[in-house]
Each structure stands twice: as C-alpha cells, then as structure tokens.
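Marked as duplicate of an earlier ticket. Keeping the data here for the record.
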Amino acid sequence: MIKKEMIAMLLAGGQGSRLGVLTSGVAKPAVAFGGKYRIIDFPLSNCINSGIDTVGVLTQYQPLRLNTHIGIGIPWDLDRNNGGVTVLPPYEKSVNSEWYTGTANAIYQNLNYMESYNPEYVLILSGDHIYKMDYEVMLDFHKANNADVTIAAMPVPLEEASRFGVVITDENRKITEFEEKPEHPRSNLASMGIYIFSWKVLKEGLLAMKDQSNCDFGKHVIPYCHEKGMRLFAYEYNGYWKDVGTLGSYWEANMELIDLIPEFNLYEEYWKIYTNSDMIAPQYFSTESVVERSIVGEGSEIYGQIYNSVVGAGVTVGKGTVIRDSIIMRDCEIGENTVVEKAIVADGCKIGRDVHLGIGDYAPSKLNPKVYAFDLVTVGEGSVIPNGVRVGKNTAIAGETTAEDYPDGLLASGEYIIKEGDRT
C-alpha cells in the first residue's frame, strides 16, 4: 500500500432527525439539494478539488441510497486501485460488535482502515454541510504551526454560539480553551466539525477515550488532547458554510441558490461540484409554462408556473399549476390546477390535481414543534396526496394518503398524517 500524506474520514451515518419525514427512509447526507445534487456531494467534491484521493465514508442509518449514490466513486474521480472512496459501515468483529455510537467511536472502529494507509494526517469531515473549502490550505496552516490538531472554525453571531463547540484562542490562533455548546459563550469562533489530526495524535486520543460511552470528538477526544498539552490551533474560515440540519436551514440554503447573485455559486469552473447524475433528456417547457428565478432539473416537464423554487430531475408539473417558494425533489408528479406554496416535497411523490398546499395561518406542530417550526409543508418520500385536498402550514405528510385521511378535505395547519411504517 502506498503511504498517503493525508486521508479523509467522512462521517455520513447520521439520521438527521431534525429533518423530520425527509429522512424517515434515507440518511441525511443522501437528501437531495439544489435540484441535482445530494448533500454528501459537497464534502466529496471538496476532497477531490483539494487533492485528497483517499476517502473513507462512514455510513450507518438507512445507508442504501447513500451507497448507491457513491458507488465506486466515479463522478468524483475516486475510483482508484490505491485509495479512492471506501464505504465503511459498522461490521461484525470477533470480540464485540457495536453500532457507531459517537463521532469518535465511529472513527475508532475504523483504525485498521486508516492504519493500512499509514497517513501523516487524517482529515475528519461531516457529511451534512454545504460549503466549499480547500483542505490543502488548512493542511498548510496545520504544518506551519507544527500543530497536533487543527480545528476549522468560523465566526458566528455571539447569540448563536451556544449551539456549537466554541474555541478560545491567543493572537497566534493557538487554542487556549475549548467549550462544547457553552451556555454563556466567551468567544464567537465556532467549531465546524472539520478537524485535521496528526495521525499519531489521533490514534493516541482514540485509544485513550475508547471506553467512553458515545465517544465524541467535541466532548472527549479534543478535550483529552488539550489536557495533555498538545498543540491545538483554530483555522479560521470565512466562506459560505451551511449546516442544513433543520427544515428551515435546508429550505433557506436551497432558496439562496436562486438569488440573482447567489452567495453560494454551484457553477464555478475552478471548484466544480461533482455528482452521480443519470444521463437523462433535457427539460421540456410547454408554451404556456412560466418559470421565474428557479432551478429546474433535467428530464422535467413543465406545463404550469414555477416561481422562486428548486425543482429536481424528472418532475412533471401539470397545466394550470402554480409552485412558489418550494423545493420539489426528483421524480415527483404534480397534477393540474394545483397550488404549492412554501413546501418541501421529497423524491417520488404524487400530488393530485386541484390540491392546495400551504394555506391558512401558522399553527404550532402537533407532531414535533421543534422539527416543524418553519411554516413549511413537508412531504416525505414516495407520498401520495389525493385530488382536491387542502393542506395548511407547518404540516407533515408521509405515506400513501387517501381522501378519507383529510376531514372535510382539509389538513389544518400544525396537523400531520403519518401512515404506518413511516417514522417521523
């Protein structure tokens, strides 16, 4: 095996429970984004654009879609005999077998994989963030400071800092203190969950902390390295970075793509975002269709009107239908004379004719007010909504629904219909 200078370990096993019915059957990193991409495409593209050709992808929750999407890594030029992309699910071991129980535990369970490349540095990434970053520049910073651990950190508003791990640094960016989700943050430099470890240091930290339950980088490994007097540095990042872990932030990040001058540009020649895309026919727009400030995926047929929305590949929008401020994922069928306002509709849904999604006033969710709190209509993968029904704001629908599920043809704001077998 050829020795690698730096390999990447990409954590992609999370359920993403704050995305509600969108992730009841698919891991968060495999959720569609921006019409033709999936969330995991961004860290994978960052790796190959940064010259990293060896990536271990750690999967666990509902991995089928993710595994199929990654395949042998061809779209990212990661189909290599030496290195490339390797999917790493939890596996049966002779002594004890366990699921990945925390970010560091997942990496610890793959020590043998990393050992086989004997790298000098290991880059730890999360599979559910939207951003572009040159990890090579971060590695140069790590080397220049003779660091043991470098944490990518970005300034956030102080009032939001308690949601993150916060680093406190001296004037040379050396970390003097690290606080995991502090109630009263003393710094606004938030950890992005992107770490470069010198290999020996990572190994020592993982072995020392291996018996901690739910062993985590922010709670266990990094504090351990700090207590041992290792050299920890913060690499400040000031570009676009979005944690799309809530329905609100996921919707916002998609909507930002269609700004006239988008803050996050998907189409830069020098920093391409690669994805596993099927060869399909181009879009078809009928003479009466209207599309304004929207992204429409390949193979879609549009007979209605679309405003300020992101529409995936293979979607059919019927005549007389109006879609506004919404995300419609791949292979959905939307009938005629239907109105869709501020909704997220997952892959493969069928919405009937004369339906109105997003009517009425705000009401708190009866299903889960923490998850469904953004005025959105959220429709889970493969759901069916019958003809002629009206659906309020802050609602969730999952499964094959029929007219009987809608009393008086209405699902009021804050209500939900979850058919058996579809978890929230």
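See parent ticket for discussion. The mean pLDDT is 87.
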